[in-house]
Amino acid sequence: MTSPFAIEEIFPDDTDQAVRLPRRQAGNSPQGLAVTLLADYTVRTRARLPSAALVALLTESGASPTGARTAISRLVRRGVLDGSREGRRSFHRLSREAAANLSAGGRWILTATATTQPWDGYWTLVAFSLPQDRGTQRRSLRGQLRWLGYAPLYDGLWISPHDLTPPVHALLTRITPGAVTVFRAHQADLDTVAGRDPLDAWDVAAIGRHYGSFLDRWRPLLPRVASGQVTGAEAVRTRTEVMDTFRRFPVLDPRLPAEILPAGWLRQPAREVFAAVYDGLARPAEQHVRAVVRRFADGVPDDVRAHTTAELLAGIGEADATETGSCPP
Protein backbone atom coordinates (compact mmCIF):
# COMPACT_ATOMS: atom_id res chain seq x y z
CA MET A 1 0.00 0.00 0.00
CA THR A 2 1.27 3.47 -0.85
CA SER A 3 1.74 5.66 2.21
CA PRO A 4 -1.40 7.78 2.65
CA PHE A 5 0.91 10.73 3.27
CA ALA A 6 1.75 10.57 -0.46
CA ILE A 7 -1.78 11.57 -1.47
CA GLU A 8 -1.24 14.40 -3.95
CA GLU A 9 -3.95 16.68 -2.68
CA ILE A 10 -5.49 17.24 0.70
CA PHE A 11 -8.20 19.29 -0.96
CA PRO A 12 -10.08 17.46 -3.72
CA ASP A 13 -9.24 18.06 -7.36
CA ASP A 14 -12.77 19.07 -8.24
CA THR A 15 -12.98 20.66 -11.66
CA ASP A 16 -16.41 22.05 -10.81
CA GLN A 17 -14.82 24.40 -8.26
CA ALA A 18 -13.40 27.73 -9.35
CA VAL A 19 -10.67 27.63 -6.72
CA ARG A 20 -7.77 25.24 -7.34
CA LEU A 21 -5.83 24.86 -4.10
CA PRO A 22 -2.23 23.72 -4.52
CA ARG A 23 -1.23 20.09 -4.63
CA ARG A 24 0.24 18.67 -1.46
CA GLN A 25 3.80 17.68 -2.26
CA ALA A 26 6.53 15.94 -0.30
CA GLY A 27 7.96 18.58 1.98
CA ASN A 28 6.75 22.16 2.05
CA SER A 29 6.13 23.65 -1.40
CA PRO A 30 6.14 27.47 -1.64
CA GLN A 31 2.51 27.46 -2.76
CA GLY A 32 1.48 25.24 0.13
CA LEU A 33 3.42 27.41 2.58
CA ALA A 34 1.79 30.57 1.24
CA VAL A 35 -1.72 29.11 1.59
CA THR A 36 -1.02 27.85 5.12
CA LEU A 37 0.45 31.20 6.23
CA LEU A 38 -2.46 33.18 4.86
CA ALA A 39 -4.99 30.73 6.28
CA ASP A 40 -3.40 30.77 9.73
CA TYR A 41 -3.35 34.56 10.06
CA THR A 42 -5.86 36.09 7.64
CA VAL A 43 -8.63 33.59 6.87
CA ARG A 44 -11.19 35.31 9.11
CA THR A 45 -10.43 38.86 7.87
CA ARG A 46 -9.07 38.23 4.36
CA ALA A 47 -6.42 40.81 5.25
CA ARG A 48 -4.36 42.25 2.42
CA LEU A 49 -0.65 41.61 2.91
CA PRO A 50 2.08 43.47 1.07
CA SER A 51 3.59 41.07 -1.44
CA ALA A 52 7.05 41.90 -0.09
CA ALA A 53 5.94 40.84 3.41
CA LEU A 54 4.56 37.55 2.11
CA VAL A 55 7.83 36.91 0.26
CA ALA A 56 9.78 37.66 3.45
CA LEU A 57 7.64 35.26 5.49
CA LEU A 58 7.98 32.52 2.89
CA THR A 59 11.74 33.04 2.78
CA GLU A 60 11.91 32.62 6.56
CA SER A 61 10.07 29.32 6.12
CA GLY A 62 12.64 28.00 3.66
CA ALA A 63 11.50 29.17 0.23
CA SER A 64 13.81 31.12 -2.04
CA PRO A 65 12.75 34.70 -2.91
CA THR A 66 12.28 33.67 -6.54
CA GLY A 67 10.28 30.59 -5.53
CA ALA A 68 8.12 32.70 -3.22
CA ARG A 69 7.28 35.25 -5.92
CA THR A 70 6.55 32.48 -8.43
CA ALA A 71 4.28 30.75 -5.93
CA ILE A 72 2.29 33.95 -5.35
CA SER A 73 1.82 34.46 -9.10
CA ARG A 74 0.63 30.90 -9.57
CA LEU A 75 -1.82 31.17 -6.69
CA VAL A 76 -3.30 34.28 -8.33
CA ARG A 77 -3.75 32.33 -11.57
CA ARG A 78 -5.41 29.48 -9.64
CA GLY A 79 -7.91 31.89 -8.10
CA VAL A 80 -6.58 31.30 -4.57
CA LEU A 81 -5.24 34.85 -4.17
CA ASP A 82 -6.57 38.24 -5.22
CA GLY A 83 -4.00 40.88 -6.14
CA SER A 84 -4.13 44.68 -6.01
CA ARG A 85 -1.79 47.66 -6.19
CA GLU A 86 -1.36 50.97 -4.41
CA GLY A 87 1.22 53.05 -6.19
CA ARG A 88 4.35 50.95 -6.46
CA ARG A 89 3.24 48.49 -3.80
CA SER A 90 1.44 45.25 -4.59
CA PHE A 91 -0.81 43.41 -2.14
CA HIS A 92 -2.35 39.94 -2.01
CA ARG A 93 -5.07 38.31 0.01
CA LEU A 94 -7.09 35.11 -0.01
CA SER A 95 -9.92 35.11 -2.50
CA ARG A 96 -13.38 34.83 -0.99
CA GLU A 97 -13.77 31.29 -2.33
CA ALA A 98 -10.38 30.15 -1.01
CA ALA A 99 -11.07 31.64 2.43
CA ALA A 100 -14.37 29.75 2.58
CA ASN A 101 -12.70 26.49 1.58
CA LEU A 102 -9.88 26.90 4.06
CA SER A 103 -12.20 27.89 6.90
CA ALA A 104 -14.40 24.85 6.35
CA GLY A 105 -11.34 22.66 5.84
CA GLY A 106 -9.87 23.74 9.18
CA ARG A 107 -13.11 22.94 10.95
CA TRP A 108 -13.28 19.55 9.23
CA ILE A 109 -9.73 18.66 10.33
CA LEU A 110 -10.68 19.07 13.98
CA THR A 111 -14.13 17.54 13.67
CA ALA A 112 -12.73 14.48 11.89
CA THR A 113 -10.09 13.89 14.56
CA ALA A 114 -12.44 14.29 17.54
CA THR A 115 -13.47 11.33 19.68
CA THR A 116 -15.81 9.13 17.66
CA GLN A 117 -19.37 8.33 18.68
CA PRO A 118 -20.46 4.71 19.33
CA TRP A 119 -20.60 2.81 16.04
CA ASP A 120 -23.76 1.09 14.83
CA GLY A 121 -21.81 -1.61 12.99
CA TYR A 122 -23.00 -0.55 9.52
CA TRP A 123 -20.70 0.14 6.59
CA THR A 124 -21.43 2.38 3.60
CA LEU A 125 -20.32 0.74 0.35
CA VAL A 126 -19.87 2.70 -2.88
CA ALA A 127 -19.53 0.52 -5.97
CA PHE A 128 -18.75 2.23 -9.26
CA SER A 129 -17.73 1.29 -12.77
CA LEU A 130 -16.34 3.82 -15.22
CA PRO A 131 -15.00 2.91 -18.69
CA GLN A 132 -11.31 3.18 -19.52
CA ASP A 133 -11.85 6.36 -21.51
CA ARG A 134 -13.11 8.06 -18.32
CA GLY A 135 -9.77 7.63 -16.56
CA THR A 136 -9.54 11.27 -15.47
CA GLN A 137 -12.99 11.14 -13.88
CA ARG A 138 -12.14 7.84 -12.19
CA ARG A 139 -8.93 9.22 -10.68
CA SER A 140 -10.74 12.36 -9.51
CA LEU A 141 -13.52 10.28 -7.95
CA ARG A 142 -11.04 8.12 -6.09
CA GLY A 143 -9.15 11.14 -4.80
CA GLN A 144 -12.32 12.80 -3.58
CA LEU A 145 -13.62 9.61 -1.95
CA ARG A 146 -10.31 9.32 -0.11
CA TRP A 147 -10.61 12.93 1.04
CA LEU A 148 -14.16 12.20 2.23
CA GLY A 149 -12.99 9.29 4.39
CA TYR A 150 -13.53 6.31 2.09
CA ALA A 151 -10.99 3.61 1.23
CA PRO A 152 -10.90 0.84 -1.42
CA LEU A 153 -11.79 -2.61 -0.11
CA TYR A 154 -11.62 -3.95 -3.67
CA ASP A 155 -11.14 -2.29 -7.04
CA GLY A 156 -14.29 -0.26 -7.66
CA LEU A 157 -15.68 -0.89 -4.14
CA TRP A 158 -14.99 1.84 -1.59
CA ILE A 159 -16.19 1.76 2.00
CA SER A 160 -16.70 3.95 5.04
CA PRO A 161 -17.95 3.17 8.56
CA HIS A 162 -20.13 6.29 8.44
CA ASP A 163 -23.47 7.05 6.86
CA LEU A 164 -23.73 8.74 3.47
CA THR A 165 -23.04 12.44 4.01
CA PRO A 166 -24.36 15.32 1.87
CA PRO A 167 -20.89 15.97 0.32
CA VAL A 168 -20.57 12.30 -0.71
CA HIS A 169 -24.13 12.29 -2.04
CA ALA A 170 -23.42 15.42 -4.09
CA LEU A 171 -20.21 13.89 -5.44
CA LEU A 172 -21.88 10.65 -6.52
CA THR A 173 -24.80 12.38 -8.22
CA ARG A 174 -22.33 13.94 -10.67
CA ILE A 175 -21.22 10.53 -11.93
CA THR A 176 -22.61 9.12 -15.18
CA PRO A 177 -26.10 7.65 -14.49
CA GLY A 178 -25.98 3.90 -13.95
CA ALA A 179 -22.29 3.89 -13.00
CA VAL A 180 -22.59 3.87 -9.19
CA THR A 181 -24.52 1.98 -6.49
CA VAL A 182 -24.54 2.73 -2.74
CA PHE A 183 -25.33 0.25 0.07
CA ARG A 184 -25.54 0.39 3.88
CA ALA A 185 -24.96 -3.04 5.42
CA HIS A 186 -23.48 -5.17 8.19
CA GLN A 187 -20.58 -7.44 7.37
CA ALA A 188 -21.57 -11.11 7.10
CA ASP A 189 -18.90 -13.33 8.66
CA LEU A 190 -17.68 -16.09 6.34
CA ASP A 191 -16.52 -19.39 7.80
CA THR A 192 -13.46 -19.29 5.58
CA VAL A 193 -10.10 -17.55 5.35
CA ALA A 194 -11.26 -16.03 2.05
CA GLY A 195 -13.25 -13.32 3.78
CA ARG A 196 -11.59 -9.90 4.00
CA ASP A 197 -12.14 -7.66 7.01
CA PRO A 198 -13.45 -4.24 5.88
CA LEU A 199 -10.94 -2.59 8.20
CA ASP A 200 -8.22 -3.99 5.91
CA ALA A 201 -9.13 -1.23 3.44
CA TRP A 202 -6.99 0.96 5.70
CA ASP A 203 -3.41 0.11 6.68
CA VAL A 204 -4.11 0.38 10.40
CA ALA A 205 -0.56 -0.50 11.43
CA ALA A 206 0.88 2.21 9.17
CA ILE A 207 -1.61 4.78 10.50
CA GLY A 208 -0.58 3.89 14.04
CA ARG A 209 3.08 4.41 13.13
CA HIS A 210 2.28 7.84 11.67
CA TYR A 211 0.57 8.82 14.92
CA GLY A 212 3.58 7.57 16.85
CA SER A 213 5.99 9.52 14.64
CA PHE A 214 3.90 12.65 15.07
CA LEU A 215 4.02 12.33 18.85
CA ASP A 216 7.76 11.59 18.82
CA ARG A 217 8.34 14.73 16.75
CA TRP A 218 6.14 17.21 18.63
CA ARG A 219 5.72 16.04 22.22
CA PRO A 220 9.30 16.96 23.22
CA LEU A 221 8.62 20.56 22.10
CA LEU A 222 5.76 21.09 24.56
CA PRO A 223 7.91 22.35 27.50
CA ARG A 224 9.52 25.01 25.26
CA VAL A 225 6.12 26.08 23.93
CA ALA A 226 4.60 26.27 27.41
CA SER A 227 7.52 28.32 28.77
CA GLY A 228 7.41 30.83 25.89
CA GLN A 229 10.81 29.89 24.48
CA VAL A 230 9.54 29.48 20.90
CA THR A 231 9.17 32.96 19.42
CA GLY A 232 9.60 34.97 16.23
CA ALA A 233 10.19 33.22 12.93
CA GLU A 234 10.61 29.88 14.72
CA ALA A 235 7.07 30.14 16.10
CA VAL A 236 5.64 30.77 12.62
CA ARG A 237 7.65 27.93 11.04
CA THR A 238 6.71 25.51 13.81
CA ARG A 239 3.02 26.37 13.72
CA THR A 240 2.95 26.00 9.94
CA GLU A 241 4.71 22.63 10.05
CA VAL A 242 2.54 21.14 12.79
CA MET A 243 -0.62 22.14 10.89
CA ASP A 244 0.79 20.87 7.59
CA THR A 245 1.45 17.46 9.19
CA PHE A 246 -1.62 17.08 11.37
CA ARG A 247 -4.16 18.03 8.72
CA ARG A 248 -3.35 14.81 6.87
CA PHE A 249 -4.65 12.59 9.65
CA PRO A 250 -8.36 12.91 8.76
CA VAL A 251 -7.51 11.34 5.40
CA LEU A 252 -5.31 8.69 7.01
CA ASP A 253 -7.74 7.89 9.82
CA PRO A 254 -11.25 9.13 8.93
CA ARG A 255 -12.85 8.63 12.38
CA LEU A 256 -12.43 4.86 12.22
CA PRO A 257 -14.58 3.38 15.02
CA ALA A 258 -12.83 2.75 18.32
CA GLU A 259 -14.68 -0.57 18.60
CA ILE A 260 -12.63 -2.12 15.79
CA LEU A 261 -9.29 -0.35 16.36
CA PRO A 262 -6.35 -1.67 18.41
CA ALA A 263 -6.30 -0.74 22.09
CA GLY A 264 -4.39 2.44 22.91
CA TRP A 265 -5.14 4.12 19.57
CA LEU A 266 -3.18 7.37 19.41
CA ARG A 267 -5.69 9.64 17.66
CA GLN A 268 -6.65 11.58 20.80
CA PRO A 269 -3.08 11.98 22.17
CA ALA A 270 -1.96 13.28 18.76
CA ARG A 271 -4.86 15.74 18.65
CA GLU A 272 -4.01 17.00 22.13
CA VAL A 273 -0.35 17.54 21.23
CA PHE A 274 -1.32 19.31 18.00
CA ALA A 275 -3.65 21.67 19.89
CA ALA A 276 -0.99 22.38 22.52
CA VAL A 277 1.58 23.36 19.90
CA TYR A 278 -0.77 25.18 17.51
CA ASP A 279 -2.61 27.11 20.21
CA GLY A 280 0.46 27.67 22.35
CA LEU A 281 2.26 29.39 19.49
CA ALA A 282 -0.68 31.46 18.24
CA ARG A 283 0.30 34.61 20.12
CA PRO A 284 4.06 34.72 19.37
CA ALA A 285 3.50 33.67 15.76
CA GLU A 286 0.87 36.39 15.25
CA GLN A 287 3.22 38.97 16.76
CA HIS A 288 5.99 37.99 14.35
CA VAL A 289 3.74 38.02 11.28
CA ARG A 290 2.52 41.49 12.28
CA ALA A 291 6.11 42.68 12.75
CA VAL A 292 7.10 41.47 9.28
CA VAL A 293 3.99 43.01 7.67
CA ARG A 294 4.67 46.29 9.50
CA ARG A 295 8.06 46.58 7.78
CA PHE A 296 6.33 46.81 4.40
CA ALA A 297 3.06 48.59 5.24
CA ASP A 298 1.88 51.80 6.87
CA GLY A 299 0.36 51.44 10.31
CA VAL A 300 -0.31 48.44 12.53
CA PRO A 301 -1.91 45.45 10.70
CA ASP A 302 -4.78 44.81 13.14
CA ASP A 303 -6.46 42.46 10.68
CA VAL A 304 -3.61 39.92 10.97
CA ARG A 305 -5.00 37.52 13.56
CA ALA A 306 -4.05 34.00 14.55
CA HIS A 307 -6.83 31.63 15.53
CA THR A 308 -6.95 28.72 17.96
CA THR A 309 -8.22 25.19 17.44
CA ALA A 310 -11.36 26.10 19.41
CA GLU A 311 -12.06 28.96 17.00
CA LEU A 312 -11.44 26.70 14.02
CA LEU A 313 -13.85 24.14 15.43
CA ALA A 314 -16.48 26.84 16.06
CA GLY A 315 -16.19 27.86 12.41
CA ILE A 316 -14.28 31.01 11.56
CA GLY A 317 -15.02 32.70 8.26
CA GLU A 318 -18.55 31.31 8.17
CA ALA A 319 -19.85 34.46 6.45
CA ASP A 320 -17.58 33.78 3.49
CA ALA A 321 -18.58 30.13 3.37
CA THR A 322 -22.24 31.06 3.37
CA GLU A 323 -21.84 33.62 0.60
CA THR A 324 -19.93 31.33 -1.76
CA GLY A 325 -21.64 28.04 -0.97
CA SER A 326 -18.30 26.39 -1.77
CA CYS A 327 -16.42 24.57 0.95
CA PRO A 328 -14.76 21.25 1.61
CA PRO A 329 -16.67 18.57 3.50
From TrEMBL:
Signal peptide residue numbers: none
InterPro entries named in the record: PaaX-like_central, PaaX-like_N, PaaX_C, PaaX_trns_reg, WH-like_DNA-bd_sf
Boundaries of every Transcriptional repressor PaaX-like N-terminal domain copy: 31-97
Residue stretches making up the Transcriptional repressor PaaX-like central Cas2-like domain: 117-189
Domain Transcriptional repressor PaaX-like C-terminal: 202-290
Stated name of the protein: PaaX family transcriptional regulator C-terminal domain-containing protein
The organism of origin for this protein: Micromonospora cathayae
High-level lineage: Bacteria, Bacillati, Actinomycetota, Actinomycetes, Micromonosporales
